[in-house]
Design brief:
With about 600 residues, this protein is α+β, with helices and mostly antiparallel strands. It has 13 helices and 18 strands. The strands form five sheets. The protein has a five-stranded mixed beta sheet with strand order 1-2-3-4-10, with no helix packed on it. A hairpin with a 2-residue loop joins strand 6 and strand 7. Helix 1 packs antiparallel against helix 8, helix 8 packs antiparallel against helix 9 and helix 9 packs across helix 10. The protein is elongated and about 110 Å long. The termini are far apart. The C terminus is likely disordered.
Length: about 600
């Protein structure tokens, strides 16, 4: 009697497609299909009812071009899909929209990928366990977490790895092709060993809103099913590459030359596999006796602790790099926006050009003329004409200049003080944790180098101090720039005002002079971004060089002994200013105290 199987659904495919042995989702009515169009591999997710949820092109670049998808594996929580392709590349896709969560190139170019498996952690079931109320959790308390939780989260920053497009903003929700975009991440970050992104572990606040769930089946709360899971990828040279939680590389297991596992199973720290010939033309027969590999580190916490530190350090370094990029764009400008740094130079160039073209000065020196105007109130005719012209010195142009500079300097001050410095401080905490691990025998297999750890600690300490220097320099320059704008408005009003309506100066002449000499054209802030590292003393940051109390007291006594005593007694002043006559105030607010036992005259400040 013949039996027939009724089809669940019939799907009409526009292009030739194929399914793999692992295409069906373990616990949802979802199916992954592979197709090829115009020499481009495509990955699509379908509902078993016949509707397509999404379709994406596999990413590729000049270095890693995807030729063919070999195999796929579902994550233990069934929220991600691991896709392996030749040449060796692993891409982890979200089942929500197919976007690439991370791409991991497998080192080496002389092999072919043959398969992929993703195993969840299998914990031992022990009898006579303590009740749940007495348990502190499955994981050991980590000192690093306690240190970071006590600190304030670092401010979030825009994520550049997944920029929004017009398709994402304006297209209707539904089936559409979504070409995968190459993330704008430097190679040092993409090749950094790390676990899946976890901003909380790095003490970085997230600025992403909760993503809308595309499937009702995925609306449950996030679980820890993927924690300590192992992604295994086999190649044609007899290697099995292992990745913790589908991301952090743990190394590879060597099977033998020209063999590859036909089946693979993991039970706690053991790997069971049946090796077979790697070539497709060879006999597919395999031995019934499996090969067993013991990997004790899979069940310990030490490698996961190292992976968590590496992941948090990667997030902090990438965060600091993006913040510095924003600071540089605000100061020097970018491809789309002009920077605040060039505004002063452009203003001076326009002044010198006017002096050269309209007043016949062959070699004009605007800074000298401006300094002369500041100190004496007199300057050349070209400067006065430039200040009185409405073309360059209108209130609107000055307001735009002031707004741009104030915003840029405020951003430099706040970002260096509240973003870069805290990120470097957290990174130093991580390195100190690793420094402690390097002295423990449990972490000997990690091959930590004490000299490299000390070098990294030294660099993070210098980065913290450099960030403090930038914040102090930006704060000073902001004050000087505001004084310069007060003086500029004063001179413009004085040029255009009548003789009997002269304005009163409200600027600080010393601060304006400092900005003219080291801010208007050449700024100290430039040294932070270009050239060698800036040199400065701790005193410039408000840090005393010597904290020895005895030495400080000796310096204070020496200063008192060298006190200038050539002052006049208030009881018999020699000038009207000292007496307060003529409507003026006394020149000095000090009086002389006579000590009869010594006959010395010691000045002391008068109480206000």
């Amino acid at each position: 009697m013949a039996t027939t199987i009724a089809p669940v659904a019939t799907i009409a495919l526009p292009n030739p497609s194929r399914v793999l042995r692992t295409s069906w989702c373990p616990d949802k009515d979802l199916l992954v299909m592979l197709s090829r169009f115009a020499q481009q591999e495509k990955l699509s997710l379908w509902k078993m009812s016949g509707s397509k949820k999404w379709e994406v092109d596999l990413p590729g670049n000049a270095e890693y071009k995807v030729d063919q998808i070999v195999d796929i594996a579902w994550s233990p929580d069934v929220q991600s899909i691991a896709v392996v392709s030749n040449p060796g590349l692993i891409t982890i896709h979200s089942i929500q929209n197919g976007s690439v969560e991370r791409a991991i190139p497998i080192p080496g170019r002389r092999f072919r990928v043959t398969g992929v498996w993703w195993f969840r952690e299998q914990k031992k079931v022990t009898k006579n366990r303590l009740p749940e109320v007495f348990k502190r959790g499955e994981n050991t308390v980590w000192p690093f977490d306690l240190q970071l939780i006590s600190l304030i989260d670092v401010n979030p920053i825009q994520d550049e790895t997944k920029p929004l497009t017009s398709n994402d903003l304006f297209a209707f929700n539904g089936a559409r092709n979504r070409p995968a975009q190459a993330p704008k991440v430097p190679p040092v970050i993409t090749t950094w060993p790390s676990l899946p992104t976890d901003l909380v572990a790095a003490s970085i606040a997230s600025n992403k809103p909760d993503a809308q769930q595309s499937f009702p089946e995925a609306e449950d709360e996030a679980d820890d099913t993927n924690v300590n899971s192992i992604l295994a990828v086999s190649d044609s040279l007899g290697n099995v590459h292992l990745f913790l939680e589908g991301s952090y590389p743990l190394g590879n297991v060597r099977l033998g030359a020209e063999v590859t596992p036909r089946s693979l199973y993991k039970l706690r720290e053991s790997l069971f596999l049946h090796p077979g010939p790697a070539s497709d033309s060879s006999s597919p027969a395999v031995a019934l006796q499996p090969s067993i590999f013991k990997l004790p580190y899979l069940t310990g916490r030490h490698y996961r602790d190292v992976a968590r530190v590496s992941s948090a350090a990667r997030e902090l370094v990438w965060y600091a790099m993006r913040v510095v990029k924003e600071m540089r764009a605000a100061w020097f400008g970018s491809d789309t926006n002009a920077g605040a740094r060039d505004l002063g130079q452009k203003w001076v160039n326009a002044l010198e050009q006017r002096q050269r073209n309209e007043f016949g000065q062959e070699e004009p020196y605007a800074l000298l003329d401006l300094t002369c105007l500041l100190t004496t109130g007199r300057t050349s005719e070209g400067v006065l004409d430039y200040l009185g012209s409405g073309e360059h010195m209108s209130e609107r142009s000055i307001q735009k200049w002031e707004t741009t500079m104030v915003e840029a300097l405020t951003r430099l001050r706040d970002f260096s003080e509240k973003r870069v410095a805290p990120a470097c401080q957290r990174l130093r905490l991580l390195l100190q944790e690793v420094q402690g691990w390097a002295a423990l025998p449990q972490y000997a297999a990690c091959n930590f180098t004490v000299e490299e750890i000390d070098s990294c600690l030294d660099m993070t300490a210098r980065a913290i101090v450099s960030s403090a220097w930038l914040a102090a320099t930006a704060r000073k320059e902001l004050i000087r720039f505001k004084e310069f704008m007060k003086w500029l408005r004063y001179e413009i009003t004085r040029v255009n005002a009548a003789d009997h309506h002269q304005p009163r100066p409200q600027h600080d002449i010393l601060e304006v002079n400092e900005y003219l000499t080291s801010g208007l054209v050449v700024s100290q802030i430039d040294k932070w971004f270009i050239g060698p590292a800036p040199r400065f003393t701790p005193e410039s940051l408000g840090v005393p060089q010597n904290t020895n109390i005895s030495l400080a007291l000796r310096k204070a006594r020496a200063a008192l002994n060298l006190w200038d005593q050539t002052v006049h007694d208030v009881s018999s002043p020699r000038s009207p200013l000292a007496r307060g006559g003529g409507g003026g105030k006394p020149k000095a607010n000090r009086i002389i105290t006579r000590y009869p036992e010594t006959g010395r005259e010691t000045p002391r400040p008068r109480a206000h």
